Amino acid sequence: MIITKTPYRISFFGGGSDYPNWYRKFDGAVLSTTIDKHIYLSCRYLPSFFQHKYRIVWSKIENVKNINEIRHVAVKNLLKHLNFKSGLEIHYDGDLPARSGMGSSSCFTVGLTKALLTLKNTKISNYNLARKTINFEQKIMKEIVGSQDQVAAAMGGFNKIIFKKNNSIKIKRIKKNKNILRLENNLVLFYSGINRTAHKIASGYVNTLTSSKKEYIQKIVEHVNEGEKIIMSGNIDDFGKLLHSAWNLKKKLSKSISNSKIDSLYNEAIKFGAQGGKLLGAGGGGFLLMYMKKNYRKRFLKRFPKVIEVPFKFSDEGSQVIFKNLNR
């Protein structure tokens, strides 16, 4: 049996520029961090005396005899892609809801790929794991997804991730300093309660990134460098203001990125002392990240008791195997 532990991520700036149809023409960059919330995946070879050959446990329980009968599309295609013939049992558990803007789809695929390759006793670096997952999601699954979530989930840490026209990816690790610790302390995650599928939201604006939306994406990428400067030597409160600026730019990409419920929650948080924030992921729902100091946060949550706060800390580790037993 193999068990992997893979972190969710928070993306601050640069979202949109990590889509291939953008960075293969103009380069791209994002500023992001992983957090201490994880997806756990366990895989084991299934003995032949079971009536089913594959058992997949997620929000559903699937017991099937043929790969093509598996309803979880990513699992089915990944087993085919990695050429698995033996029976398998796969269990999925996540600390946070799926389709909530935390990069859960790519986090799942990174963790499952690492587990399946380890089960085959195949070694792979976390950088190559990210590249393999990007290729699988974009080329094999043909999903409209960017390339930042796979890198963040595989590598872990607080990073500036740079996407080049030649398809290379550079990861600049930003070491913890007092500003990162202050930023961590001043950020809060609110759950909107709205689930959505990221590639469906993204499909509404990704194809126009290199035309009518070019000006907005270029400005969003500029926020990556500015955010890095603030982290390294600036006034950390400026990071909150920069989040507000980037969020207003991102909303210009598509009407589907926000909605009246999200706008209302965001505006109320600003009234209660937040300096800025953003909806995580492609938009439409999920988690709202706000730069909001604790004294303001308590007043806000008291005023809106139905809002769910999810405490978190930044994390340094990427996808890892936490249990390994290859005996069949």
Tally the structural domains.
Answer: 2
Q: Could you give the distance between the termini?
A: 8 Å
In CATH, what is the class of the largest domain? Alpha Beta
Question: Mean pLDDT, rounded to whole units?
Answer: 92
> Considering DSSP H and I runs of 4 or more, what fraction of the residues is helical?
25-40%
Radius of gyration: 20 Å
Using the alpha-carbon principal axes, give the shape.
Answer: globular
CATH architecture of the largest domain: 2-Layer Sandwich
Task: Write the element-wise H/E pattern from the N-terminal end onward.
Answer: EHEEEHEHHHEEHEHHHHEEHEEE
| Coarse structural class | alpha+beta
Total DSSP E strands: 13
- Describe the main β-sheet briefly: 9 strands, mixed
Question: Any low-confidence stretches, pLDDT <50, length ≥5?
Answer: none
Summarize the structure.
The protein is an alpha+beta fold.
Can you put this structure into words, describing what you see?
With 328 residues, the protein is α+β, with helices and mostly antiparallel strands. It has 2 domains: 2-174 and 315-324, Ribosomal Protein S5, domain 2, CATH 3.30.230.10; 178-313, 2-Layer Sandwich (Alpha-Beta Plaits). 38% of the residues lie in helices and 24% in strands. The protein has helices at residues 20-26, 73-81, 104-119, 126-140, 148-155, 178-186, 198-202, 214-233, 237-250, 260-271, 294-303; strands spanning 2-13, 28-45, 54-57, 61-64, 88-94, 158-163, 169-173, 187-191, 276-279, 287-291, 308-309, 314-315, 320-324. Strands 1, 2, 3, 4, 5, 6, 7, 12 and 13 form a 9-stranded mixed beta sheet that branches. Strands 9-10-8-11 form a 4-stranded antiparallel beta sheet. A hairpin with a 7-residue loop joins strand 9 (276-279) and strand 10. Helix 3 packs across helix 4 and helix 8 packs antiparallel against helix 9 (237-250). It is globular. The model has no long low-confidence stretch (mean pLDDT 92).
